[in-house]
Amino acid sequence: MGVRAGRDPPARRRPSTHGGGAVTGTHTAARAARPGRAARVRDLMPSLVLAAIAFTFVTGETLPVGLLGDIAAGLDTSPGVVGLSVSVYAATAALTAVPLTRLLARWPRRRILVATAAAFTAGHLLVAAAPSVWFLMAGRAVSAVAHGLYFAVAMPVVTRLAAPEHRGRVGGRIIVGGATALVVGTPLVTLLGQAAGWRFAALAVAGVALALAGMLTRTLPSLPVSDDAAAAGGRLLPTLRFPGLPVVLAVTLLVVGGHFVFFTYLAPYAAQSLDVRGPAFSAVLLGFGLASVAGSALGGRLADARPVAGVRAATALFVVVPVALWASGRVDARPLGAALLAVSGMAFSLLVVLTVLAALRRVDDAHAETANAVHGITFQAGILGGSALGSLCYRIGQVEQIPLLTATFGAVAFLLVLTTRRAFGPRHAAPGGDPHVKEPSGPG
């Protein structure tokens, strides 16, 4: 290259700017370390982009929540009818995730994830152009199909790419993305819709989703599917036979059901028991959301370091906090009650992360997406059951007793966690060398 062997070009013999001395082996080591840092950034990017897509999907899912009146006026219908689009979205996402996972079992995972972002974009374009409520429902359904499939595939993909000791932390980023949407995305899209119109808000969500789809094509490897994984993909009954997975799903159902008994009627409870309403309640909701984001981030780290101790501590917190919240209402300790509302958000988000990562640990890579989809369906079932039970308490005038009901659900979950350690621990080889539950040799 124009330089004789044994002699460095002058630029390489200049003093180091880091130590004030001549260029030595230390400088060479620093140069060698740079590709390592670049590789870490390159490995980080897919999980960050996937987390950003999760943020966008949940923001789009909740778009009608703050704009019910605006959408209803624009489509000449009632807010109650527009509100049904939220239920249609949840039901569609839950019902289509497993069948689509099986149908597309042979597709490379990047193709699926990019396709879901594109379909989500198309759904929101339909929403933005909707001339009637039926077009609105159709657009929401298209986005919901993409939503269910995305969350079934994204978590297994990021954990597959990560080193085994970092899988919990990396997988937790997807949940942090979704949790952050409730704190930041929903208020932002509501403000945008109020300022520029709900159709423009839907267009903005579509534009962000499309941009992220383009980023995903550049940051995520193709991730082709092995023949074994393709053959196993989407098979529900074989997935449910993995040891420990039914216990994880049962704990998930109890925790989500118990949480949504209370969360669905958080506003009337805060008003009746704690006299927290108006701007004070908005501040409590912000604290609840921020605590949920923190819990999601902490859950990923606990899943890597202390999965069993983490889930036990989080479940105990899920029991104790509602009881303390109920007691604070009885003794008129309103500031304590407001703080406990935020802590309840952290306890729940901890358990969401710990249970979904436990579900992935219980199965092999070939069944991970189906296990994740089933966990999502269980989550939706918990929401439906818990909100229905909360509605019953509201109708019979027992809102103030709802935290005790949440604690009862949590107590049953805690007993399951205490008596089934292996369901939440690291992945182990099954007796007799069952390949379904042995630790894989590497990520993917």
Automatic annotation (TrEMBL):
Q: Does the keyword Iron apply?
A: no
Chief location of this protein? membrane
Compartments, record wording: Cell membrane
Ranges for the region named Disordered are 1-32
TM ranges: 44-60, 80-100, 112-135, 141-162, 174-192, 198-216, 245-267, 279-298, 310-327, 339-360, 372-390, 402-419
Q: What is its membrane topology?
A: Multi-pass membrane protein
GO molecular function terms here? transmembrane transporter activity
By its UniProt entry, which PROSITE patterns does this protein fall under? MFS
Its keywords, alphabetically, are: Cell membrane, Membrane, Transmembrane, Transmembrane helix
Transmembrane as a keyword of this entry, yes or no, is yes
The residues covered by the Major facilitator superfamily (MFS) profile domain are: 44-425
Q: Which GO terms describe its cellular component?
A: plasma membrane
Q: What Pfam families has UniProt attached to this entry?
A: MFS_1 (PF07690)
* Compositionally biased intervals (Basic and acidic residues): 1-11
Write down the PANTHER family for this protein, in alphabetical order: CHLORAMPHENICOL EFFLUX PUMP RV0191, PURINE EFFLUX PUMP PBUE
- What is the designated name of this protein? MFS transporter
Q: Which organism is it from?
A: Micromonospora endolithica
**Taxonomically, what lineage is the organism?**
Bacteria, Bacillati, Actinomycetota, Actinomycetes, Micromonosporales
